[in-house]
Amino acid sequence: MEVTTFEIVDVVKRSSYIVSTKLYWGGKAETERGLSRKHIIEGLKGSLERLQLEYVDVVFANKPDPHTPMEEIVRAFTHVINQGWSMYWGTSRWSATEIMEAYSVARQFNLIPPVAEQAEYHLFQRDKVEMQMPELYHKIGSY
């Protein structure tokens, strides 16, 4: 009887691709959604478990959370980066004002600012990307 062994030749190294995830929505409980420290940490740990990964490259705050102070949000994302669960954090559907607030809080407390924005951009929704974001880039540099 012949035993066949397989040699994996083309293994894709984790460092060769980018994985991102989004946080905001979760379960039905109040603590299972939003951008509280609790939900950011637990939500990202759950996402990593489902993805079967040790870290993601970018974790996005899927929408602004008016019920959580910006300092708590920025501190929580700094924490998950410092833990090695994510390399960077970004925003999705945040206004230029909200992004500037996050950036200012990060600079004030020596925390990690967001590095990306996933903006809605299409034929009928162009104002933010073409008018508001360039002003933000001018104030804080490339985003």
Automatic annotation (TrEMBL):
Keywords, alphabetical: NADP, Oxidoreductase
Name assigned to this protein: NADP-dependent oxidoreductase domain-containing protein
Statement: the UniProt record of this protein carries the keyword Oxidoreductase: yes
Domain NADP-dependent oxidoreductase: 11-131
One of the Pfam families matching this protein, by short name: Aldo_ket_red
Top-level taxon of origin: Eukaryota
Organism field: Tegillarca granosa (Malaysian cockle)
Gene3D superfamilies documented for this protein: NADP-dependent oxidoreductase domain (3.20.20.100)
Cited InterPro entries: K_chnl_volt-dep_bsu_KCNAB-rel, NAD(P)_OxRdtase_dom_sf, NADP_OxRdtase_dom
Protein family per UniProt: Belongs to the shaker potassium channel beta subunit family.
